[in-house]
Amino acid sequence: MERDEPTFYGNGVNQDLAVTTRYAAIEPMYDSEEIPDVLLKLTEIISGKEEAFDKLAGMMEGLAGLPAAPTKAAWERLKAEGEKSPFTKACREVGLIETAKRLHTTPENLDKTLREKGVYHEESMHELLEQYAVPHKLPTTTASGRIEFFSTLFDMLRSQGFTTPHFSVLARPFAAECRENKTMDQALDEDEFYFTYGKVPTVSYGSTNSNNPVLAAINTWKKDIYTGVWLHPDRAEKLGIQSGDKIRLKNTLSGQEADGHAYVTRKVRSDTLFLHSAFGVENPQLTRSYAMGGTATNHLIPHNVEPVVAGFRSQEFTIRIAKA
Amino acid sequence: MAKTPHYAMVIDLNTCVGACMAACAMENQTPVWENKWRTYVHDMEIGGDNDELIRRRFFPRLCNHCDNPPCMSVCPTGATHKLDNGIVMVDDELCMGCRACAMACPYDARYDVTYDDVDQGKEFYGELHHRSRPSVDKCSFCAHRVMRGLKPACVETCVGSSRLFGDLNDPKDEVSKLVKSGVAKPLMAHLGTRPNVYYISDIERTT
User: Fold this and answer.
1) Where is the 4Fe-4S ferredoxin-type domain (chain B) (predicted)?
2) Which of A123, B33, B166, B201 gives B173 a disulfide partner, CB atoms 3.0 to 4.6 angstroms apart?
3) Average pLDDT of every residue of chain B
4) Mean pLDDT of A113-134
């Protein structure tokens, strides 16, 4: 909400070929800086001030194609001009020029189109299909010349030693494991629930915009819904829990514990607890969001990493609750 | 000669996520610290007792800019008045704060802005603060923006394109078409207020 994205990238939600980026909707609060500038400072600490920029910009050139030399020139100029987040701004500036060049347009026109329409269209889905659709181009480029449901990437990874079933070259299901020595078919105990979480439209956890006074006022109005642990009334009644009651939550796999307040609602399944992930801020400097309270999801979600894409297995456990 | 517009809003409840309150507050500088807003988006549970039918529904509420506004009929000073384009306005200079309008409004759209709120607003919104008098305030369809050819702030910033704003006198206007088709319906039409805010419910959407 408070940042211009440092890069320009493909529009992921539409099947047309298009470019998009993010524009800041509100001013950053306090003395907060953009993430790329923070990462650059960390690189300076780790790699030494002299080499940091070249290392980071070189890596970005290799990974994202953003040319290091003009980015460095823009960074030095913006730094001299006293820009607050000069590295981010430099990436944005060079990214705009390079993307416009690729699209055979001007940076001004690209910027104007993105501001007005949100996306810059390159080709429609139908034009793409006309040119690239597999049925028109058979035989395919697979080994058999036919459509194969086979991952060449995973095949390569397997040859590099990643041989657990997660790296199967064919799509295969994995049963979820939420409890030790118990299958998903086995009944939950009376005080035991699956866990899921989601976002609110007004804040991101730990972001400085969580302290924005207007957004904080909306959150305060909806405090019970937003900060409470959602619990189905049929289960709540059996446990003697009512909306607003203080409850203790315990992760049955990791042993992590946290406090929360119950919000009893039929909007959640009876076997599951739901929590908005934006609250439970622990930084007292963020006075408004700190005062909101709530339960931080990182007190309940363990460091349990999925082996293929390294995403968190953030819902593969159960939680026991009790009135505190 | 072009017909005078008759402005109306359509809200599609299927795509609302309740993000517009902030845009409205910033545009119209409402006393949010006192939980006073020109538009509220309620977070509701609908569907009765059957768990399979239960849904979370965001429900936006605002002044309905009625063609027969009870708040205007009861206003003793003429502060509440209606423009030719259908927008119901409040003149802060004429409002004496009697709250008759708040009692008359069936949509609970009126709220007090007090002298304390005006003072606090200067602190909260800083040098851009534009309110100098208290009144019994409400949504103005962002008339100051509409007159410049812009959409109301809540419509302009609606991430789900849930809120649409248009002219009922223009048969080609999307809002006009939705209202004419009967898909979008007003709240409490039986009261005879003839509101200009219409809602598309999920049931209508599926038919």
Assistant:
1) 54-85, 86-116
2) B166
3) 93
4) 86
Beta-carbon separation of A220 and B55 below 8 A: no
Question: Range of A105's domain?
Answer: 9-123
Residue partners of A267: CB distance under 8 A and separation at least 6: A230, A274, B45, B54, B55, B56
**Cross-chain CB nearest to A267 (options B26, B33, B45):** B45
Q: What is the mean pLDDT of residues A52-58?
A: 89
Is residue A250 pLDDT above 80, yes or no?
yes
Q: Where are the alpha helices (DSSP H) in A118-242?
A: 125-132, 134-137, 152-159, 213-221, 223-227, 233-239
> Which tops the pLDDT comparison, B51 or B93?
B93
CATH code of B136's domain? 3.30.70.20
Domain boundary among A100, A123, A146: A123
Give which of A221, A224, A225, A234 to mutate to test B binding, by max B Cβ within 10 Å.
Answer: A221
In this prediction the pTM is 0.78
Give chain A positions within 8 Å (CB) of B55.
267
Q: Please tell me which of the candidates B19, B26, B51 has its beta carbon nearest to residue A266.
A: B51
Q: How far is B77 from B101, CA to CA, in rounded Å?
A: 11
B113 to chain A, any CB pair closer than 8 A? The answer is no
**Which of B51, B55, B124 is opposite residue A213, by nearest beta carbon?**
B124
Residue predicted with more confidence, A126 or A196: A196
Task: Tell which of A88, A123, A158 closes a domain.
Answer: A123
